Amino acid sequence: MIRYILTPFLLACAIVLLSPSADASVRLKDLVEFDGVRGNDLVGYGLVVGLDGTGDGMRNSPFTEDMLSNILERLGVNVTGEQFRPRNVAAVIVTATLPPFARAGGRVDVTVSAIGDARSLLGGTLVMTPLNGADGAIYAVAQGAIIAGGAAAEGQAAREVRGVPTSGSIPLGARVEREVDFDFTSIERIRLALRVPDLTTALRVEQRINAEFNRSVAMMTDAGTVVLDLRQTNMPSAAHALARIENLRITPEVRARVVVDQRSGTIVIGEDVRISRVAVAQGGLTLRVEETPLVVQPNPFAEGETVVVPRTQAQIEDAPPLALAELREGTTLSDIVAGLNALGVAPRDMIDILNSINAAGALHAELLVR
């Protein structure tokens, strides 16, 4: 018997309530990005060796065989015309981020991901791989043993996989070979870009920096930018000025927002969310479909063939009726949760309720559905 049950309570759901205190402050470095102080993405194409028979199949991944042949020929081994099909090598894409102010000789972390039909990179070693920037120049070279977080086990008729064994990392696995030219000492004005643009937050950043230097050195230009005049700070260098302000504590302003993830049933409700007076009732249906196919065979020694006769039972049931709950005007976060819980509904049903309240114009917050 095959049974399918569709009900609003299929998945376990969660509600996250964001209720920061009024004086919750964060460091300036956690609110803004300093113009010009950023990393650069690097990418390379390499080969992983030393796998335990979990590498690429050469028939399905001919590029792996070509790369292996090129590497061996550069090492003085002539394999032209040879038929070799090793299962302990895999072609991979190597990615990394070159941090700001990285110097030649420094090391960065790299991520290694299989691009062929390799089943696992566990126990593999990445062969020397150049990492290129967007301009095509080589900025780092990666090599080392791979740490893969997944695991796989298989037999003749089944295979079980936990995590992603075809992707791993090499901590400090790339050595910086070229520096990104950036003269930080010649900067006279630097922009502070807010990660979450907001006029009130930008104004608070301006006021806090000016109060630190006791003069007007910062100016808000828009909701996402504050310009700092480094000459007016009277600091020895731009680095000294940024080091002085990056740990200043500022209270950011957050918009009232409700975030809904329909796939996982997660609801995030901000502290400043308010709703107008509204009454809410919630109900649902349960659809039950049962398949009990019947096999019909012909009589012994009779002509005919065996057939499968489908038998289906479908049933729709009304969910138990729920009471009508009233949410008063100006309802706060705790009142919303208490009102919805009074209906006895699950978080996934609250998603539909919040959508309906928003459609009625009673939800005074930004509703983001993902």
From TrEMBL:
Cellular component GO terms, alphabetically?
bacterial-type flagellum basal body, distal rod, P ring; outer membrane-bounded periplasmic space
User: Where found in the cell?
Assistant: Bacterial flagellum basal body
Task: Say yes or no: keyword Translocase present.
Answer: no
Q: Where is the signal peptide?
A: 1-24
Instruction: Name the Gene Ontology biological process terms.
Output: bacterial-type flagellum-dependent cell motility
Listed InterPro entries: Flag_FlgI
Pfam families per record:
FlgI
Q: Which domain of life is it from?
A: Bacteria
What are the recorded GO MF terms, alphabetically?
structural molecule activity
Q: Which UniProt keywords apply?
A: Bacterial flagellum, Cell projection, Cilium, Flagellum, Periplasm, Signal
Q: What role does this protein play?
A: Assembles around the rod to form the L-ring and probably protects the motor/basal body from shearing forces during rotation.
Please give the family membership noted in the entry. Answer: Belongs to the FlgI family.
Provide the assembly information: The basal body constitutes a major portion of the flagellar organelle and consists of four rings (L,P,S, and M) mounted on a central rod.
Question: What name does the UniProt record give this protein?
Answer: Flagellar P-ring protein
The protein's organism comes out as Roseinatronobacter bogoriensis subsp. barguzinensis
Gene behind this chain? flgI
